[in-house]
Amino acid sequence: MGKYYLNYLDELESEAIFVLREVWAQFQNPVILFSGGKDSILVTHLAKKAFYPAKIPFPLMHVDTGHNFPETMQFRDDIIKELGASLIVGSVQESIDTGRVAEEKGKNATRNALQITTLLDAIEVNKVDCAIGGGRRDEEKARAKERFFSHRDDFGQWDPKNQRPELWNLFNGKHFQGEHFRAFPISNWTEMDVWNYIKRENIAIPSLYFAHEREVVKRDGTWIPNSEYLVLEEHEEVVIKKIRFRTLGDITITGGVESDADTLEKIALEVAGMRQTERGNRSDDKRSESAMEDRKREGYF
Amino acid sequence: MLDNNQLLRFTTAGSVDDGKSTLIGRLLYDSKSIFEDQLAAIENTSRKKGHNGVDMALFTDGLRDEREQGITIDVAYRYFTTPKRKFIIADTPGHIQYTRNMVTGASTANVATILIDARHGVIEQTKRHAFIASLLQIPHIIVCINKMDLVDFSEEVFNRIITEFEEIASKMLITDVRFIPMSALLGDNVVNRSENMPWYQGAPMLHTLETMHISSDINKVDARFPVQTVLRPQSTEHRDYRGYAGRVASGIFRKGDEITVMPSGFTSKIKTIDLYDKSLEEAYAPMSVSITLEDDIDVGRGDMIVRSNNKPQATQDIEVMLCWLKNDSARPNAKYTIKHTSNDQKAMIKEVIYKIDIHSLDRIVDDKELKMNDISKVKIRTTKPLMVDSYRENRITGSIILVDDATNETVAAGMIV
């Protein structure tokens, strides 16, 4: 007799596939929110498994801040081609040009918060009733409160104190016109689980996750990549360091860590020894203790 | 981590005073699952609030209101990993008004940990927590008798509390219960063995969690496969593929098995069991797979594939232990959507048989109004048959939720008797 239990990675995979199929069954027009980061790549990979041999039956949606790593954009276009999927792009630049939002000013200006409007506009225009995200509960304390199926009202807002209870594997995606849901198939995965699974499945990820030499600037204790959008302070100096990124966001706010990890094995080992959370290098989360909760309430990822 | 490491889900119920946050903090800290920047943030807030030392509750309370009011409002999930297992903690508030959150956290748990303050012994709250664990049929219970340092690490106190707990548990459906004397504050018997209690022969809490047998927690006998959706690629390569996608709820399915599709009653044989591009010989709970059949029969979402010699009951009338989850009381004769596996039907609460007094655990028969956090036994009638097992035998095919069609809110959760 064989063993009749799953190991933790298979159980997480099975749970995520179940959630993705529930989304497909309960909603008319779902999309995967695709940022080019490892978590949305993982969700896309799981969707491929969930519906095989059929194609992923919904489009990928990218909220393009215009401040991207070029590597991420290339990766996005390659994966779309490989999957034969369609891509919806919501452009922050367009939101700025049409006056929907105003660009932040100052040294630490970012387009991070502006994405909310672009995302909600794209959801509305494309009549999306469920946006599947790669959010994980271990990432951040407000995200620890998320449901697998998370309701958004007709303003796209999250009401964390008044969420639908989620019991067993019975997910309630019922909603009124104009409202939508966010679904989080990898809620129960940790950063370590993600890396162990990427390694096991040998999933392709952008080169930015591997150690590479790059022009960077030390800011707030992290290495911010030099780019055309970066406004240098007088005392700041561009140096070349061997770094890698633990998360990928806007090029303006994503800090790298010094590292020699240039293979998936080495990354998994490095992550296992990390003493800082992965979002510790994201200046968008550092603005206040409830920075994530505040943005999420308004409709953030 | 090893390839055969399992995932264990457990709940913690208790109030701040029981040392619940200290216990969780201890587990996370000693297993190196708290990161430096998280710790720095908590230290900072603790200092601002004028606490002595680090308030570990700040680690589990994620929402601003929770941190400001110093209470846990909603279930918070925490994760840690040891070389033996991955753990998910559903940290639930212990107060009576949060019964619904305890029920939520309990619904998927393998283990319930119940905290008792050694100075106070079994109190009303302990009884409520044990009752919910038994109602939700959590397979294992660990009773953590905490703050042993405040009762001189007395074996006599420990034994007395065991007797008290066994007395209340004897009236409930509790099978596997273990008792651990500990001091979460000092770390005694949490991760490391206590040197202060040489009389305790059992394992510390973490070792217990790492080694307890959980493979039998899922029903491996009754093969049940609720169909979520149908995969029909219609590509040149897979022109005739018609796969029924779902997650095995219980039992084991093998290629060639004689199956019946319920409720239609059509029979066929399993042709293939597929997981992505791999074809499997068998699938067991909780695997997500896609099943193809030898015959072309009508199968869709809401149907259940079962082995022909072992079927669930198809019925429109069920008796359910119901937990009411919403502020608004149940309306008389209101219609709801009942969700059971992948099957949605309309339903009506026909009768409230009794409610349970959560303090005394006595039955109340003269008050039939279902209010928030009430637990009651009810009769429900559905418009079409559900394929059910009793919750005691099957947590997946024995559970339901009710959704109010007027608000789309989930208003109740139930366990089929």
Question: Can you give a write-up of this model?
Answer:
The complex is a heterodimer of chains A (301) and B (417). Chain A is of the alpha/beta class and 301 residues long. Helix content of chain A is 31%, strand content 16%. In chain A, the strands form two sheets. In chain A, strands 3-2-1-4-6-5 form a six-stranded mixed beta sheet, sandwiched between helices. Chain A has a four-stranded antiparallel beta sheet with strand order 8-7-9-10, with no helix packed on it. In chain A, helix 3 links the parallel strand 2 (60-64) and strand 3. In chain A, helix 1 crosses helix 2 (38-51) and helix 6 (191-201) runs antiparallel to helix 7 (264-272). The longest helix of chain A has 19 residues, at 8-26. Chain A is globular, with a radius of gyration of 19 Å. In chain A, 55% of the residues are buried. With 417 residues, chain B is α+β, with helices and mostly antiparallel strands. Chain B has three domains: 7-217, 3-Layer(aba) Sandwich (Rossmann fold), CATH 3.40.50.300; 224-307, Elongation Factor Tu (Ef-tu), domain 3; 313-416, Elongation Factor Tu (Ef-tu), domain 3 (Beta Barrel). In chain B, 18% of the residues lie in helices and 36% in strands. Chain B is built from eight helices and 22 strands. In chain B, strand 4, helix 6 (124-135) and strand 5 (140-146) form a beta-alpha-beta unit. Chain B is globular, with a radius of gyration of 24 Å. The chains are: A alpha/beta (301), B alpha+beta (417). Chains A and B meet through helix 1, helix 2 and helix 6 of A and helix 2, helix 4, strand 2, strand 3 and helix 5 of B.
